[in-house]
Amino acid sequence: MTTFASGTDTVTRDALTVLQPGFSGTTAPDWLLRRLGEGLASVGLFGRNITSPGQLAALTAQLRAEREDVLVAIDEEGGDVTRLEVRTGSSFPGNHALGAVDDVDLTREVAHALGRRLAECGVNLNWAPSADVNSNPANPVIGVRSFGADPQLVARHTAAYVTGLQSAGVAACTKHFPGHGDTAVDSHLALPRIDADPAVLQDRELAPFRAAIAAGTRAVMSAHILVPALDPDRPATLSGRILTDLLRGELAFDGLLVTDGMEMRAIAGTYGIERGSVLAIAAGADAICVGGGLADDETVRRLRDALVAAVRSGELAEERLAEAAQRVRALARWTASAAAEGARAHRPPVADIGLLAARRALTVTGEEGFTPLTEPPYVAALTPVANIAVGDETPWGVAAELLRLLPGTETGSFAGDAAGRAALVAAGARRIVAVVRDEHRHPWMASALETLLAERPDTIVVEMGVPQAAPRGALHIATHGAARVCGRAAAEAIAGC
Q1: Which residue from 22, 78, 88 is spatially nearest to 49, judged by alpha carbons?
Q2: 188 part of the active site
Q3: CB proximity list for 337: less than 8 A, separation 6 or greater
Q4: Catalytic residue (one of 188, 224, 476, 480)
Q5: 344-365: b (≥16 Cβ within 10 Å) or e
Q6: Strand order, beta sheet including 363-365
Q7: Backbone phi, then psi, for 116, in 5-degree steps?
Q8: Where are the extended beta strands (E) located within 281-393?
Q9: Average pLDDT score over the chain
Q10: What are the pLDDT digits (tens) for 212-257?
Q11: Hey, which residues does 478 pair with through a beta bridge?
């Protein structure tokens, strides 16, 4: 049971309660445990905090020994964005693969299985699913994190994902409101802008969020994007028009409203994290996500003090801060009851549901005249720079799985204008498997692929991003994501397993 530190006043406790900070290391540092005793109610976990399920369970138990009702949050989308399996690749395909299958029962089962895994490790809030409609194929940060480009498809799978995840006792946090799909800028790096008119926004961006709210999503995450049709002055995270008038009012959402990471440049580079946090709470946000980059006690202190000072000066209403803190505590109560209910309603998981889903998600072109490989090939990975949400720690591709099926398989990573020629030299006489990721977004990659196919028309092509370019190669496999299970499914198709 939590015992708040003596002398911690209500406003200060509430200011701590609305923060969702991260930290470094695989055990909780002393400063974090002390803050939990002072009123901090949430902790965010990232790949750096996780080495194994057992270690993660011990970490969450350590947190709960200090505060039993703590919200332990994570950014576990499955697919390309995984924290549980950051060093191996995910056992679950991501949203785009599930959207390609378009079986809402499968999406629900995958989300439930992922939720069970989180719950078993003591995680009770997942910053997922992404409900963004990937209407801009050149989007540098959403891509395969989206169920697709059709708003109704995205809506039905978002609802199914929310239902599946929460049936395992883990709160869903549907993101990135009001929709990050039609952007050409990564909000980790700058402030994106969506210049769609209100009718388009209603029919496209907002449809999945309506579905998520109808499905009972316990939380929603705001986007650091400027949408002039909704608010010409402030990004969504800082906009009362978007968070209060639209999300709370028009869409009638009454759950926890979480900001995206406040140290992202879209906010930190324009307003600063302290000012941005005050404006976000004033606009209607309930929880400040921070810690992906700034993961220390000084950050917590700065944000706490900025919120307290804003209340003392009258810039932020004390009632608004108290309301936000109350929503955090309400979600903590829900997770406690949902976890118990999920344990009572235990249903046997579908064996290898992630792999089954990844196999179903494959789109294979040219298989009629294709003879499966029996000799080890050379895998040429045409490797783009990973976006910040995905990170560069997580392995991807088909090489490891082909090595398992065809011992002796070799691989290399290539990028830039000379990638095609370099891959040909490295492959020698071996059959080439070219692995690409969003070929349509990288001219050098398309050029390298043309070079490979001109010289070696029997090259097999595996597209692990959003398939937009025309299928080519002796065999073309679109996996709709780069999760480990997507690579395994593709390798099985190549080897005829």
Answers
A1: 22
A2: yes
A3: none
A4: 188
A5: eeeeeeeeebbbbbbbbbbebb
A6: 363-365, 475-478, 460-463, 432-436, 378-382, 410-414
A7: -60, -40
A8: 288-289, 363-365, 378-382
A9: 94
A10: 999 999 999 999 999 999 999 999 999 999 999 999 999 999 999 9
A11: 363, 463
Q: Given 14, 186, 260, 438, which residue is catalytic? A: 260
Cβ contacts of 368 within 8 Å, gap of 6 or more: none
pLDDT reading at 63 higher than 50: yes
Q: What is the pLDDT at residue 345? A: 64
Q: How far apart are CA 263 and CA 272, in angstroms?
A: 8
Tokens of 342: 């999920």
Q: Among 126, 138, 236, 116, which Cα is nearest to 186's? A: 138
Q: Extract the tokens encoding 222.
A: 């705001």
- The Cα–Cα gap between 487 and 464 comes to 8
Q: Token pair for residue 219?
A: 């939380």
Contact 94, 483 (CB under 8 A): yes
Q: Summarize pLDDT for 349-363 with one digit per residue, the tens.
A: 777 999 999 999 999
Six token digits for residue 287: 């929880």
- The sign of the CA dihedral 81, 83, 89, 90 is negative
Q: What is the pLDDT of residues 452-474, one digit of tens each?
A: 999 999 999 999 999 999 999 99
Q: Are 213 and 251 in contact (CB under 8 A)?
A: yes
Dihedral over Cα of 205, 207, 213, 217: its sign: negative
What value does the mean pLDDT take over residues 403-412? 97
449 residue type, one letter: L
- At 37, list the tokens: 């005793």
Q: Which two tokens stand for residue 147?
A: 């169920």
Residues 483 and 90: beta-carbon distance below 8 Å: yes
Tokens of 379: 């895998």
Tokens of 135: 């209407």
Q: For residues 409 and 431, what is the distance between their CA atoms, to the nearest angstrom?
A: 10
CA distance 139 to 249: 29
112: annotated active-site residue: no
From first CA to last CA, the distance across the chain in angstroms is 53
Q: Distance between CA atoms of 294 and 299, rounded to whole angstroms?
A: 7
Cα separation of 210 and 444, whole Å?
40
Return the closest-CA partner of residue 392 out of 80, 79, 130, 53.
80
pLDDT at 5: 43
